[in-house]
């Protein structure tokens, strides 16, 4: 629907979105943006609803953070650097 609005000139700045529309709707959607956009909107609506309840949002945020454990970005990047490239982290001198 969003693409249709942009393509049907409902948007006053159609040319701003033409490249995106051509990619998503023109068979070049390598990241499947258009394929799961509806489920993305559903998930965003659920997040918006959860955000309206501060207690629920706080609980979900804490559980999400603590549940990520081994999948944190620092560990992921460190493992990738060590296992893929065979490099170790560099250290920066302190300023004082």
UniProtKB/TrEMBL annotation:
<comment type="function">
    <text>Allosteric enzyme that catalyzes the rate-limiting step in glycogen catabolism, the phosphorolytic cleavage of glycogen to produce glucose-1-phosphate, and plays a central role in maintaining cellular and organismal glucose homeostasis.</text>
</comment>
<keyword id="KW-0663">Pyridoxal phosphate</keyword>
<dbReference type="GO" id="GO:0030170">
    <property type="term" value="F:pyridoxal phosphate binding"/>
</dbReference>
<keyword id="KW-0808">Transferase</keyword>
<protein>
    <recommendedName>
        <fullName>Alpha-1,4 glucan phosphorylase</fullName>
        <ecNumber>2.4.1.1</ecNumber>
    </recommendedName>
</protein>
<dbReference type="GO" id="GO:0005737">
    <property type="term" value="C:cytoplasm"/>
</dbReference>
<dbReference type="Pfam" id="PF00343">
    <property type="entry name" value="Phosphorylase"/>
</dbReference>
<keyword id="KW-0119">Carbohydrate metabolism</keyword>
<keyword id="KW-0328">Glycosyltransferase</keyword>
<dbReference type="GO" id="GO:0008184">
    <property type="term" value="F:glycogen phosphorylase activity"/>
</dbReference>
<dbReference type="GO" id="GO:0005980">
    <property type="term" value="P:glycogen catabolic process"/>
</dbReference>
<comment type="similarity">
    <text>Belongs to the glycogen phosphorylase family.</text>
</comment>
<dbReference type="InterPro" id="IPR000811">
    <property type="entry name" value="Glyco_trans_35"/>
</dbReference>
